[in-house]
């Protein structure tokens, strides 16, 4: 039995997965699986992109139609997984090895496609992703900057602090003093 696979932008968490699943089911589509960035539909419910796209957009998602856009979203999802890999692996893979292993494509190809569609490099996107995670950890107030730096595989707290200032325009201390620290949603990176 064949299926229809939709690639969907702005799915960044389990609540997004549930929202897309519910939206598609209510619209009469039979889903086989919904994961971050994708929805696999049963072949008995043919997909009309012109019908599905507005439904997704009304809920803050976007149907990706081009292969480059689809690959870029896959890379973004994998980079979020890579952060977990960094924190938990004894000897973590490099970003390029991690992506090429999972996508079976050369890093050069992945980098070119990502840069063209996302308008920034994979490395810069990963830095933004890491800094957003650092903001989350800082807002909890449970870890020191050096502990966060170790967890996120920075060479030192100073290196993290410098990169934090470059990306946010504020020091870590300024961020901590804010009563409601500004954080970005992952889909806006």
From TrEMBL:
Keywords: DNA-binding, Transcription, Transcription regulation
Protein name: AraC family transcriptional regulator
Presence of keyword Disulfide bond: no
GO molecular function terms attached to this record: DNA-binding transcription factor activity; metal ion binding; sequence-specific DNA binding
Keyword Transcription attached: yes
Stored InterPro entries: HMA_dom_sf (IPR036163), Homeodomain-like_sf (IPR009057), HTH_AraC (IPR018060)
Domain of life: Bacteria
UniProt source species: Hymenobacter nivis
Residue ranges occupied by any HTH araC/xylS-type domain in the UniProt entry: 73-178
Gene3D superfamilies in the cross-refs: 3.30.70.100, Homeodomain-like
Pfam families xrefs: HTH_18
């Amino acid at each position: 039995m064949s299926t229809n696979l939709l690639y969907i932008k702005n799915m960044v968490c389990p609540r997004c997965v549930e929202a897309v699943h519910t939206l598609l089911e209510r619209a009469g589509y039979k889903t086989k699986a919904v994961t971050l960035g994708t929805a696999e539909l049963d072949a008995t419910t043919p997909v009309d992109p012109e019908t599905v796209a507005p439904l997704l957009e009304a809920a803050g998602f976007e149907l990706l139609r081009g292969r480059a856009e689809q690959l870029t979203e896959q890379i973004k999802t994998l980079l979020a997984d890579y952060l977990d890999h960094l924190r938990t692996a004894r000897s973590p893979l490099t970003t390029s090895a991690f992506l090429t292993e999972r996508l079976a494509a050369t890093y050069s190809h992945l980098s070119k496609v990502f840069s063209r569609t996302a308008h920034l490099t994979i490395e810069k996107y990963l830095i933004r992703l890491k800094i957003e995670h650092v903001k989350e950890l800082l807002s909890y107030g449970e870890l020191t900057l050096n502990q966060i730096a170790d967890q996120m595989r920075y060479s030192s707290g100073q290196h993290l602090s410098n990169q934090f200032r470059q990306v946010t325009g504020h020091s870590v201390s300024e961020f901590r003093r804010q009563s409601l620290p500004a954080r970005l949603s992952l889909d806006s990176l």
